[in-house]
Amino acid sequence: MSTQRPTASRRPLSRVAFYLHLWLGVVSTVSLVAIAFTGILLNHKRGLGLMPDVPYAPTAPFESAIHLERLAYAALLAAPVEARLHWQPNDAVDVGLIDRMDVRPRNGYVKVRLRDKASTEMTVDITSGKVLHIGRRGDVFLEKLHSGEAFGGAFVILSDIAGVALILTLVTGYWLWLVPKLGRGTRTREGA
Amino acid sequence: MSLGIVAFLLGLFGVPLVLLGVAHKLRRRSARVQAGFWGAVWGHCIAGVIAVTWGMIPPEAWTDSEVARGAAGLWGLLTIPAIGALVRVAAAGGAKAQRPREGKSDRAATLS
Q: Which residue stretches of chain A have pLDDT < 70?
């Protein structure tokens, strides 16, 4: 009787664990595959050329940096036409086109990222206003896909669901693997 | 929420849930259901690969003008399994496969 009690109490739990493992595993497969792929690509974004890497050293002290508005203008002027949309040379800087300006004082440049579909980024020298590089930031879209944000701000819930499903699948997997062994060990000891 | 997103969510979560439901006691189901199930499973696997690959290559946001990409990324997970199921059902129907596949339960039914 005493040997049967723990096994009997574990059986319904194991059944729940099995069905949770199965259903959550199947339902979250595509989401988890997408999250895993985008995660791997993001880890190697420089090597895969998803992110422009501009090796550069400052040409003048930071104090001589030019105005942010001038840097933004230089970047918009150099941007491909399809990235700057309606903006024309000699127009005032349209901040609506700019996603962010990432200033790197130690490198002596600013990265101006646009809000177009390819997240085009211009690297501009902060002291001369010279455009050093124009490239696409593929990692921006991959990050959004990784988090689910690519489908809309509220869709980060997709990666949350996948994360919770992964944790539960792992826990139930361990349960299904170890609990039968635990029961067998108890029976063997009690039998001896 | 756009219709494309609804189709995407249905394909992402709805199709696997339906397949799991159908997979329950699959051997006892008719040959047509079994064929449809396997067609949908294959369809969903293929759709998943296409959606994940096309979704991130090129790594740029989707625009409304990219009809094929939107179809693969959003609608594919729902439509390709359905197409796969229909193809397999049609193929099974053509190959006089109205009989359920012989399994344990079928043998038991024959014996009784």
A: 1-10, 185-192
Is the CB of B78 inside 8 Å of chain A's CB atoms? no
Residue B101's pLDDT is 53
Option in B48, B60, B61 nearest A33 (CB): B48
Alpha helices per DSSP H over A49-155: 68-78, 81-84, 138-147
- The answer to whether A166 and A151 have CB atoms below 8 angstroms apart is no
ipTM: 0.76
- Decide if B33 is inside a domain: yes
- Supply the pTM of this predicted model: 0.79
* Amino acid in position A69: E
B51 within domain boundaries: yes
The parent domain of residue B53 ranges over 27-102
* B77 contacts in chain A (CB < 8 Å): 30
Is the sign of the CA dihedral B37, B41, B66, A33 positive or negative? positive
